[in-house]
């Protein structure tokens, strides 16, 4: 996965949280190295084993995972010729005992936790190695019985120490009166007497030190010198024998290198698995079903770093549509919705349970591409829009059917008209490539595009216009708005300013004029080419099926094949004049076929102009409101339908037409006509 994606979606925070739940250095290392995977089967297996471990924890199980204290050094130095110390072997012995304890514990859990138990069952006991270490070392010290030679040496040392003690008692009694203090001191590892300086010649021996004031000299009596020399020799023998014992233990340990490595790695994996399980328990994470077809269906999803403060998110994509356009007010939760989907997907692909309701489904993606934020931190020398475009270029280059694309605030940072057009073009390209796309926007044109285009769907973040508070609930299948007018009015903006603002917004003068002029110019050019071309029989570009069923969708304005016949020229001239007259008057009738320039699509007028100049247009089976200034006549209704044609056949379902006819004759209790939200 792209590192920018991981950073933007706060994946590294998840890594830290999982690592904090691990006990061992290997468990923490696995957590910090955790990355999203791409294999569906492997991911599902990891999720199910994490769920199994989490279930054990939820039932109060306390799994005795070894801590691996000191094992990092042992694993690093094993086989290098390094001589392990008593402390190293104490750590190794504790590790081996803990492994045996874990294996015994998990043996009794094989029925309720088969996967976790299999990990423990794969470990090695190494009883012979543990027994030899425990025989030789205890409490960090080599035992007297570790070897016969060591037993003999230490017995001699005990005899020497006893003789020295008796000799010291005799010397203390003899020299007590000339001693500075009645204690025995040690200097340079040898026993000395603290004698007053003026009496130094009364004690036979070597002066090894004197006090800072010079009033005391520390003398090793001659009677102790031979005992000290004997003890030093014995200590040398002891040290050599201890090194020999440690060497033998090191050699024995190296013969178990494979088994030790296996146990260590298994403990690290188990510790990481339990860390994932512990983290899942803290955020109420659950297992989901995984697919590679882009299908996502989640109920009550939470962003794991927001906790219970987040309103649960219900989210669906990938069945009837692969691109979702989310609209709504600022601070309404649109960006959080994007980040929640992105981060939960990364977590799921890392084998982590996710905080969602039961029965969730999620898709695996080879890449998650994001365009969230203003990009200034990445491209400080570029504008927000430039950084956005550079980012989108990279996304478009890599996008395919296994890519999840998350885009925040499409068409922002530049001229709205150009931004909308560019955004729609990019959405079309991403859809053509088969990518799964979730994008947020404020622009109505993009909402209309999503409503009219197969494979796209609208969604909105709910907003309370009374309290001016976002509700953070996502409603799929409904387009939202920015609520700027409601917020401004609630905060005290004058009504006449609000009304004027609505009027200006509805007109969309520049964009509609541009679309109209472009359409007229193209039609005039087409007419000019037609008048100069070779004579060919007249042929309409409408297919027979379209002529029979004029409500079928037509992707482009009508174009007539080239011919120089007078009949065709006259017909085209007539169409041009009629279209120009209608455009100038901006008068549309029910059944007119109209062209929507910014969508580059045609639709059929289903509702005449309302008080605000909005026209109801049937576009790909859905009714939407578009201001008249954004429409140009494509084909007049009287050219499409016979006189007195019942247009309800076009705009209403057969069931509703029957109901309406019945209701016109008599009252029927409980009978009602159901309309989709956009037609109500």
Notes on the protein architecture:
The chain is of the alpha/beta class and 680 residues long. It folds into four domains: 3-126 and 256-282, MutS, DNA mismatch repair protein, Chain A, domain 3, CATH 1.10.1420; 146-248, Orthogonal Bundle (MutS, DNA mismatch repair protein, Chain A, domain 3); 289-493, P-loop containing nucleotide triphosphate hydrolases (Rossmann fold); 509-645, no CATH class. Helix content is 48%, strand content 16%. It has 23 helices and 21 strands. A six-stranded mixed beta sheet has the order 12-13-14-10-15-16, sandwiched between helices. Strand 5 and strand 6 form a beta hairpin. Helix 3 packs across helix 11 (257-282), helix 6 (86-107) packs antiparallel against helix 7 and helix 9 runs antiparallel to helix 10. The longest helix has 33 residues, at 222-254. It is elongated. The chain starts with a helix and ends in a 15-residue tail after the last helix. 33% of the residues are buried. Mean pLDDT is 81; it is low at 374-382, 509-568 and 578-584. Residues 527-549 are annotated as: Disordered. Keywords: ATP-binding, DNA-binding, Endonuclease, Hydrolase, Nuclease, Nucleotide-binding. Residues 530-545 have a biased composition (Polar residues). GO terms for molecular function: endonuclease activity. Pfam families: MutS_V.
